[in-house]
Each structure stands twice: as C-alpha cells, then as structure tokens.
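OP here, attaching both records as promised.
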Amino acid sequence: MRKMDEIMAYNKEFVQSKGYEEYLTTTKFPERRMVIVTCMDARLTELLPKAMNLKNGDAKIIKNAGAILTSPFGNIMRSILVALYELNAHEVFIIGHHECGMTGIDPNNVVAHMEARGIEKQVIHTLRHSGINLFRWLTGFDSVRESVESSVDIVRNHPLLPPNTPVHGLIIHPDTGELEMVTDGYVYLEAHG
C-alpha cells in the first residue's frame, strides 16, 4: 500500500473511532505561552516535547532544517511574531540539537544530489545568475552552539520583538533528551533591561 493510502485509511478509522477527542482540550493559544523553533529531525518529534514536559497544546512549535533563522524578515521570524502578538506566546525558545544533519553540510553535495535526482544543470546555472546564491542558502553550520547563538541574536535584535520578551537558546541531545542551556533569556533581560 502506498504511504498516502495508508495515511488516509488510518485517518478514516481515527475519525470514526473519535481518536481526536483526547485533543479537544486545547485551543490555538499555547497553554504555556511558548513558541519554540527547533529542527525537523525525526528523532525530536516526540522526544523534545517529552524532554520539556510539554503536552499537546502547550507550545507553538516551528520546525526547519537545523533550527536556523537566516533572515530577520523570513518565514520563521514572521511565525514567531505572529505567535507573540496574535497567539499569546510570551517567550521564545531556539533549540538546536547535537548530531544535526545541518552540521558541516556541503552545499556542493546538495547541488550534486539535486542534479542526480533530475534537476537540470541549466536550472542551477540560471538561479546562480539570477542573484540566488544557492551555496549560501544551502549552507549549514560548523557548530550547533554558534548556530543557536546566531538565531537567538536575530530574534533578540528584531525591531518588532515585543520589549522584555525572553529569548532562550538550548541544545538537546537526540539520544537522551538532555537539554543544555546556551543562553538564558531571563538572565539576558536582567543584564540588558
């Protein structure tokens, strides 16, 4: 059976058996007033919320490759601001992880894989000459700690961030769930507030 067929068959049974009822206790507003930016790594899907003692409805969780913010006016920052201004989040957590696939990623390899899977070299060439720097866009990081610090700095220094918003940086270990503090948003606000 194809993946989509499996999902649709399961979903039909889920709805008919009212499996959704246990999730009806939440709303679109995060109970713990948190917005989290973390990596899309599959190991973190259930581990991260458990390691943070979060249940369904506690936090807004935004995922991307590497938990990286690259632009102060990109989609990730927009989602953070919407969570803070419209969805009652009051704190921001940037959470990277050890053994991240974005560590040391080589954009040349990614482009080679694109070409191997059918993207024409001409498309890559056209993008490069259209002002799109694929190699910068596809670059990961050498240090997860530095990446978390950089993303935290983008959020903390954003001109639209509500004043006195704690922005925390953490690293989680994908095997144990252990959290390592990179930067404490409360301490930062006390020192710079």
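Record two, same layout:
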Amino acid sequence: MAELLRTHPLEAWSTALERLPDTVGITVEPFVAMAVVRLGAVGAASEALGAGLPTTPNTWVPAGSGRAVWLGPDEWLLSSTTDTPEELEARIRAAVVPLGGSVTDVSAQRIGLRLTGERVRDVLAKGCSIDLHPRVFGRGSSAQTLLGQAGVVLMALSDAGDDFVVLVRSSFAGYLADWLLDAALEFTPTHDS
C-alpha cells in the first residue's frame, strides 16, 4: 500500500505570502500535532503531563515542544512539534484518562500562520474585533475570535504586538490567506513599471 504524501493546504499561496514586505510578514507554520483535552482536575493533569495547563481564560503557555492554549473552563488545545499525532494523543491519554479526562487528536483540523512585523496589528485589526494593543493582548494572550469572518485561535507571541500565530481550520485556510493578502495590500510598497 502506498503511503499518502502530506500536502499543506496553503502550498498554492506560498509565493504570494513570500512577496510581502517585512512590515507584514506572513509565513505558514510547519505541521504540528494537536490534541484537545477535556478535564476537570487541572492540577493533577498538569503534574501528570509535565506541563502546566493555563487556568486563566484566554491565555497560552509553552508546553514542552509546543503550546497549551486555554479554550474553556475545562478544555485546552495542546500542540507538539516533536511528537507525531499518535504519540501526542497517547501521551496525553495516559495522563488524563485516569483523572476522568478525555483527549481527541485534532492535528488535521487546524494549520498555523505566523504573522510578524510592525504593521501586523493593523492588518489584524481590519478583520478582528478584539483589542490587540500590546497592553491588553501581550505575550501569552490568546482568543477564539473571528478574523475576516473565519473562526481562528489567535495567540500573541510578543509584548511588542508584532508577532502572532493564527490557527485556522484547514478548510478555511485558503480563504484566510486571500483575506490576509488583501488586508496587507495597504502596507505593501507599490512598484512603478
């Protein structure tokens, strides 16, 4: 049986994204394993997982080689850049099932886009209704929100407001890439022919 090749939903957009100026950089993040955890006993789970789960709403924390993102009072999104989806799910399952929790592999559900540059907040503000000022939405902040009418998980990676990760459902990735490219046009220098 032939092995299926993994292709990225935004391969067709890579050239257009690479042409953006440094003031609004958009890069596609590599595939990562992701799992959603549902659990009531956070303290015991954090100990079993070897990484603290954030308990403050709308935050994320580094967790091993990935991130742990607060999605709700008893729900988190965990990612790993080193585990396969099967390894991540098995590791989390071993930690949370004995505590009455559950885990679901959602690796194929979302992809990540890294948005960087001094004008990236301006681009995001065109289609996002949350306050992205660094005093309000600094490093460690996250939100489930709409960006250009696509549901996303938005994470701030810096306190300067110039580095974000957007997780979007794979089926909406092309739409969001087109939207971001259009929103960034204002900040792209024009070239006279």
